[in-house]
Amino acid sequence: MAHEGHGPNEHLGTEETGRGVMIPEVLILFEDWADRGLPLPAYETPGAAGADIRANLPPDQRAQGVTLAPMERRIVATGIRVEIPPGFEMQIRPRSGLATKHGITLPNTPGTIDSDYRGPLGVALVNLGPAPYTIHHGDRIAQMIVAPVVQAGFRVVDRLSDTGRGEGGFGSTGRS
């Protein structure tokens, strides 16, 4: 299926895996300044749900990296823009190793990239650890999950249905 703005061999939406399974395809556009020698987002193991995203720092930051002081938040560049097929979103999530070893996580996890966004893909990071942490050019800084989206309809009613839980809120179902 051809898509406006793409060449005849490029398509937007899904591609076949060879097993008859259709998977969403995300198109990637490098920023003009980006280091094209870094790997694209990639699944590190066959069973990985998330594809790792790397810091692709602007040329003036590559040598020294980007240092986050404790409790500092910053958007770290990835050097790419994405086109996500309609009906899907991209969720940006922390990498568990960075979070547990160094306290580096995302302040808005998961971050959502909508299918109609075409701007630069930056990753908002926060250092919850006790020491400064330096992100180097090419470091894996987060992971992306491509997931289907269902847009709901909304309707005002006079009454909601009853359930066993009812109005029980936070912690109402107990500990065990």
Keywords:
globular; single chain; mainly beta; 4-stranded antiparallel β-sheet; about 5% helix; Deoxyuridine 5'-Triphosphate Nucleotidohydrolase, Chain A; about 180 residues; about 35% strand; 1 helix; disordered N terminus
Q: Could you characterize what this model shows?
A:
By secondary structure, this protein is mostly beta strands. It has a domain at 26-35 and 49-148: Deoxyuridine 5'-Triphosphate Nucleotidohydrolase, Chain A. The protein contains 1 helix and 12 strands; from the N terminus they run E-E-E-E-E-E-E-H-E-E-E-E-E. It has one helix at residues 96-102; strands at 13-16, 22-25, 27-30, 51-54, 66-68, 73-83, 88-93, 104-105, 111-113, 120-127, 133-135, 140-148. The chain has a 4-stranded antiparallel β-sheet. The protein is globular and about 60 Å long.
Helical content stands at: under 10%
* Overall 3D form: globular
Rg: 20 Å
Give the class from helix and strand content and strand pairing. Answer: mainly beta
Determine the mean pLDDT: 89
Question: What is shown here, in short?
Answer:
The protein has 176 residues and is mainly beta.
